[in-house]
Write a structure and sequence with these properties.
Layout lengths: L3 E9 L2 E9 L2 H5 L8 E7 L13 H16 L4 H9 L7 H14 L4 H5 L3 H4 L1 H13 L2 H58 L5 H37 L1 H13 L4 H22 L4 H8 L6 H15 L4 H6 L6 H13 L2 H57 L1
Antiparallel strand pairs: 1-2, 1-3
Length: 402
């Protein structure tokens, strides 16, 4: 769930005052201990980053930055001391310096660090903000940053594995698009002119090729417009409408062959990784489950976790709570049941994290092994189709002349 920043206008001592607070939603905002009385208005502050002088940092650089903070905290330094030391390392022109300075200023002025970090949401991401908020709420920012580094590191490793497996299919797809473009722009027009001059009746496969060429040339701008405009509208609706986001997330998680399996396994891996890290940091399962909700981005998956959370709060046992949502397979629920019986949920979460990490790797290998030969076959069929469409009439003409 995305952390948002709100501007709250309220009345105090017959004067209008303003306070900035961060929360996942307005309902959560009202539960904040700093939420004032006599509120006049609440306005969400939209976060945009148009700073041309400072380049956004990559995910690897975010991980490196928080790893540096974590190392100093584990060495016994306070967070303020760590930030002051790191500030001297970075140039004032860098985004890292701005982030560290914002954190330090928040500490010096006695305000939540999350309030100052929300404006860096685009480069830091929801995961970082969620863990910082979590650490401030439970008063243990040291454990929160350590947990954050573990989760970020795991996610970066898996992301790189995924990209390495899918890079070759991606290059094949680009090659296919380029090859088709060259054929239709440069090759076919020349042969089309020659066929018209000869005036011979053309084979059906050649007629198909020419019809495809006419269609593409006639509707190319419409195709490009739809290809760009429709995804943009979907993306805009996805950002603005919670109901639309929920429906799209459900489709992504359940309805798309092969792809949905990868997304589901990735969500499961992240969920159990976060639970494991939080339980290792001293959280009870119920607390870890509640806290993990702010780190889940898929709305459909989040809804299922909220159902589990509510079931546990109503007194249901852990196994029943996980079983009622019907997104966990029987093997997973049996392991959770075993953890509940043995009172060792940490060990079970460690096992589940490893299991789903392996499943994720296997799923990526599987889709890669399907996509690569499929793309090669498609490229081969397209080349065969074009070659036959071009050379069949030439062979026919040669036969007639001989």
């Amino acid at each position: 769930m995305s952390i948002k920043q709100f501007k709250i206008k309220y009345q105090k001592d017959n004067k209008n005052s303003i306070i900035l607070l961060s929360a996942n939603s307005i309902s959560e905002l009202r539960d904040d201990e700093n939420y004032p009385k006599n509120v006049i208005s609440i306005k969400e502050i939209k976060q945009y980053q148009w700073n041309l002088n400072k380049k956004n940092i990559s995910k690897d650089e975010v991980l490196y930055l928080f790893n540096e903070i974590n190392i100093m905290l584990q060495a016994g330094l306070t967070l303020q001391e760590s930030l002051e030391i790191l500030l001297s390392k970075y140039s004032q022109k860098t985004q890292e310096y701005s982030i560290l300075e914002s954190m330090l200023n928040a500490m010096k002025h006695g305000i939540p660090i999350i309030n100052n970090l929300t404006k860096y949401k685009n480069c830091l991401g929801d995961l970082v903000l969620s863990f910082i908020k979590l650490g401030e709420e439970n008063g243990n920012i040291k454990y929160a940053i350590n947990s954050l580094c573990i989760v970020l590191s795991k996610e970066q490793v898996n992301k790189k594995k995924l990209l390495s497996k899918l890079s070759y299919p991606f290059l094949l797809s680009i090659s296919l698009i380029i090859a088709i473009s060259i054929i239709f722009i440069f090759v076919i027009p020349n042969f089309e002119h020659m066929f018209k001059q000869l005036g011979a009746s053309l084979p059906i496969i050649t007629q198909w090729l020419l019809q495809i060429k006419v269609f593409l040339f006639e509707y190319i701008y419409s195709i490009l417009f739809i290809s760009i405009f429709v995804p943009f509208v979907i993306w805009l609706r996805y950002k603005k409408s919670l109901k639309f986001k929920y429906n799209i997330d459900k489709i992504l998680l359940l309805k798309i062959p092969v792809i949905s399996n990868i997304i589901m396994v990735q969500q499961m891996f992240r969920f159990f990784l976060v639970l494991k890290v939080l339980i290792e940091s001293g959280y009870k399962l119920q607390e870890a489950l509640t806290s993990s909700r702010s780190i889940i981005s898929n709305k459909y998956f989040l809804n299922k976790i909220e159902i589990i959370d509510k079931a546990l709060k109503r007194g249901k046992d852990i196994n029943t709570a996980f079983s009622i949502v019907e997104i966990f397979d029987p093997f997973t629920t049996r392991l959770i049941f075993a953890g509940e019986k043995s009172n060792d949920m940490l060990m079970i979460m460690q096992k589940l994290e490893v299991i789903y990490e392996q499943r994720l790797e296997n799923s990526v290998k599987k889709i890669s092994s399907i996509i690569e030969p499929a793309l090669i076959a498609i490229i081969g069929l397209i080349i065969l189709f074009v070659m036959l469409a071009i050379f069949l009439p030439i062979w026919q003409i040669g036969t007639v002349l001989s």
